[in-house]
Amino acid sequence: LVRDTLAGIHATDADLAAFISVNDDAVAAAEAQDAAGIKADAPLAGIPIGIKDNIVTKGLTTTAASKMLANFTPIFDATVVEKLHAAGAITVGKLNMDEFAMGSSTENSAFHPTKNAWDHSRVPGGSSGGSAAAVAAGEIPVALGSDTGGSIRQPAAFNGIVGMKPTYGRVSRWGLIAFASSLDVIGTLTRTVRDSATVLNVIAGHDDRDATSATEPVPDFTAKIGDSIKGMRIALPEEYLGEGVDPKVTERIQAAATQLRALGATVETVSLPHTKYAVPSYYIIASSEASSNLQRFDGIRYGFRAKDVKNLDDVYVRSRSEGFGPEVKRRIMLGTFSLSAGFYDAYFKKAAQVRTLIAQDFAKVFADYDLVMGPTTPTPAFKLGERVSDPVTMYMNDILTIAVNLAGLPAISVPAGFVDGLPVGLQLIGPQFAEPTIYQAAAAFE
Ligand code: GLN
């Protein structure tokens, strides 16, 4: 299986460009597992997986799609990778992404763009665009991604696959190259809902090495798959079908609501009134945290160092100027500004207050409903090159996914049909730790 998977990647990826690197030792790892005898408790024995390139892998280059880390080979595995390997999975390669996970199209990779699996003239979404395209194109059955503001769900929607962003803290972030630590979550990209739950079973759980890791017990995420959704109460926020959302996308979501009702659920319109503030508050909070997290890339400890530097300042300034791409620099500047003494109250503090209001909007709805539904993205995948030079248009694309991260909630994107021949996603959002209910509804819909 691993040998065939690698052959498939070599055949397809020259064109798709989903991978940054392929693990040439994967066959040896699989053979070693076969020779040792597959353990009975290895739910993913021999299953080839791809890992987003901001999750560290021992001995395998981990670049975060940045020139800054182009030659960085970690000396340890992220907790999620350790857990996957313990469950028998075989890492076959590292997947392309926007540099440091900043972006919505994978065009911010320092190496190359990735294509949408359905239409090679379009973006695969981002920042986990390589993960989504590789799974959708059949190169691999499972990929890990990270989701800070939609980076698992949006590319899953654009490629017609299943993308799960678990509750904040549900999965250890140890070994995930930090972007915005209060928002970052590792999750799965798969072709089916059951595959997603099966992999989440493996990677979830408390980890002492991540101070924000939840102590909540981990249920069997597949347990409610196949259960009826009769009587389930689902909320459809009016803001999620409003201005800026393609009417053909709205039509697909209304069709999904009809299907959920036919299965016995109730679907009612609600309001999440602070939705319009999610994008500005996210871009202040995420950029502020990024400006702090990315201070470690200083040309001294590890990563890129500029050549022919004259003094210490030169090391810092030139290494960072040459090592980071334009979007990363934009975020560092935006974040440093928002946190600076004169502007902290007006920007960072205000954004943090708005974040609380957004979380309260959801809490009010979840007092009466089991899940919230809506589209994952306002439009299907856009053309490569179409939005790279317009960051605000690019940021607005995240309007439907970002509030979920600000509130720390779990959410899935599942295929919801096609608009103009391109896949679109249905997003199902739950209260914290309600992943089993999300999987129950998602599987019924599938
Ligand atoms: N597109 C968003 C951003 O550019 C989200 C990225 C993510 O979730 N990593 O910040």
TrEMBL record:
Ranges of residues in domain Amidase: 1-437
Function as written in the Swiss-Prot or TrEMBL entry: Allows the formation of correctly charged Gln-tRNA(Gln) through the transamidation of misacylated Glu-tRNA(Gln) in organisms which lack glutaminyl-tRNA synthetase. The reaction takes place in the presence of glutamine and ATP through an activated gamma-phospho-Glu-tRNA(Gln).
SUPFAM superfamilies: Amidase signature (AS) enzymes
EC number(s) reported in the record: 6.3.5.7
Pfam families: Amidase
Protein name (database record): Glutamyl-tRNA(Gln) amidotransferase subunit A
Root EC class: ligase
PROSITE patterns, sorted: AMIDASES (PS00571)
PANTHER family: GLUTAMYL-TRNA(GLN) AMIDOTRANSFERASE SUBUNIT A, TRANSAMIDASE
Family according to the record: Belongs to the amidase family. GatA subfamily.
Chain segments annotated as coiled-coil in the UniProt record: none
One GO term (biological process): translation
Cellular component terms per the entry's GO annotation: glutamyl-tRNA(Gln) amidotransferase complex
Organism (species): Lacticaseibacillus nasuensis JCM 17158
